[in-house]
């Protein structure tokens, strides 16, 4: 004879009825999530017992130019291995620290502690398309600061598209001379942007942007 259970039997839930633990009263308001704390104004400390939020960093327009440059297939397919900061990249960069005079953030001064020359396949058509977009005086200054003062003429040749010798020299300065370690300095504000492992850090804090 089987023992009789003393616990009462639960009545089965009718088919189609909502489970009592999963059902929700439609008139019951939803719980509100806790709002995210905002950063206090500059110079003002957060309330006691409240953890201050991490300082937000804003991506400057020059860093956005870097991402645009890296998306160009003609650049990304040249060479192999870890790449340094090319002078083509430097020619696109400028400082956007708050309070600069118009045009005061360009060109950034290069203070390099490690420079490398890495062979890159030559593409004459690609280099010829770059020449009219370059800020030539800034390129000459950058080349001189890295020890390549006499490889480029004071001005681009009038018929540069068919001048392979000129295009090869521009190619060498733009794409083969790389900065691996160093600093970029804003000529107006003196703000220093470090170059580490070939990548210039152009991030600005919220107070600087």
Automatic annotation (TrEMBL):
Low complexity bias: start-end ranges = 1-20
> Record's Gene3D superfamilies?
2.20.25.10
Sorted alphabetically, the keyword list is: Cytoplasm, Nucleus
Q: Care to name a GO molecular-function term for this sequence? A: protein heterodimerization activity
Q: What is its main location?
A: cytoplasm
Q: Name one GO biological process term.
A: tRNA methylation
Look up the domain of life of the source: Eukaryota
Query: Where can this protein be found?
Result: Cytoplasm, Perinuclear region; Nucleus, Nucleoplasm
Name the segments for region: Disordered.
1-56
Annotated Gene Ontology cellular components are:
nucleoplasm; perinuclear region of cytoplasm
> One Pfam family this chain carries?
Trm112p
Q: Does the keyword Nucleus apply?
A: yes
Instruction: List all Pro residues biased stretches.
Output: 38-55
Family, per the entry? Belongs to the TRM112 family.
Query: Can you say what this protein is called?
Result: Multifunctional methyltransferase subunit TRM112-like protein
From what organism does this protein derive? Answer: Accipiter nisus
């Amino acid at each position: 004879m089987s023992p009789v259970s003393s616990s009462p039997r639960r009545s089965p839930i009718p088919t189609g009825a909502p489970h009592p633990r999963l059902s929700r009263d439609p008139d019951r308001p939803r719980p509100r999530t806790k709002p995210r704390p905002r950063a206090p104004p500059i110079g003002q400390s957060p309330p006691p017992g409240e953890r201050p939020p991490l300082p937000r960093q804003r991506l400057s327009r020059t860093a956005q130019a870097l991402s645009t440059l890296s998306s160009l297939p003609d650049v990304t397919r040249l060479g192999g291995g870890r790449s340094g900061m090319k002078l083509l990249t430097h020619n696109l960069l400028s400082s956007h620290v708050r309070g600069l005079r118009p045009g005061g953030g360009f060109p950034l001064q290069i203070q390099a502690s490690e420079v490398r020359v890495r062979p890159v396949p030559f593409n004459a058509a690609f280099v010829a398309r770059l020449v009219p977009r370059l800020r030539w005086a800034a390129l000459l200054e950058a080349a001189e600061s890295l020890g390549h003062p006499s490889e480029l003429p004071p001005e681009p040749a009038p018929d540069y598209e068919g001048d392979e010798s000129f295009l090869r020299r521009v190619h060498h300065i733009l794409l083969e001379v790389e900065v691996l370690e160093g600093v970029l300095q804003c000529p107006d504000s003196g703000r220093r942007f470090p170059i580490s492992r070939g990548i210039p850090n152009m991030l600005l804090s919220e107070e600087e942007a």
